[in-house]
Write a structure and sequence with these properties.
This protein is α+β, with helices and mostly antiparallel strands. The chain contains nine helices and six strands. Strand 3, helix 1 and strand 4 form a beta-alpha-beta unit.
Length: 288
Amino acid sequence: MNSMTGYAYREYQDEQFQVTLEVKSYNNRYLDISVHLPGILSPLEPEFRERVRSVVSRGHVDVSIRYRSLESEVLVHVDHRAVEQYRRAFREIIDLSGCSGDAVLSDYLSIDEILKPIPPQGGTAHGTELLELFEQLLSEFQETRLKEGEATRRNVMIQLEEFLKAFSLVRSRADVLEKSLKDTLKTRFEQLLGSGYDENRILSEVAVLLVKYSIQEEISRVESHLEQFHNMIHEAGVVGKKLDFLCQELNREVNTIASKSTMAEVNQAVVTMKDHLENIREQLRNVE
């Protein structure tokens, strides 16, 4: 169980370059990746994004990389074709003008097209090393997410235990609730009709009302949802949305129990169950 909250930071320097890498994440409904790179590393952005997608399925992830080359060697390209064309041009000008002499080195060096600096490859030249460092960073990042996820799981289990205590009380009062409803209805019939009434008719009416107001079906569904929840919370992978959906279904059943109950004790237990369900859902908002 992974949290959507994670953080990792790493610095590295050798004789060729210096780099700092940082990745952090927080909860988001879908996967959203922001990558902040210096222009010289732009060609590597798709690779960084793909590495993040391989380990993160949901959440907002910020990747920030700062890079500086430490290589002092300057590469310059001499345009041989341009030198030859300018040499011919200088020769033609001298011939046409009737002047003596020839072009000198300074004449060629003053022309921008003759000497062209070669842009450094920079980060792309060290792409393999940078991606290896990023893989190490993601490994640390995943450890923080897993650690946070385990802490969240423990907190959820504590809340779930409190939910179960309240639910156990509701379950133990289900039969009492039905008997109370049955006795109340029979008493009302006797008050209205006296002793001269058709008992089979009354039992039939009571059965209809018990179907409508019994909470046994809701209890059964709550038990089923809880079993799924217990199994799922120990699964690896992306479970946040599934667990949240089960919480919604549990809340639906608890609300139905509240609408049917006429016992103060059960109603109080329902309030406790809803409170712990809300706490669980709050925790699950940060689970991948």
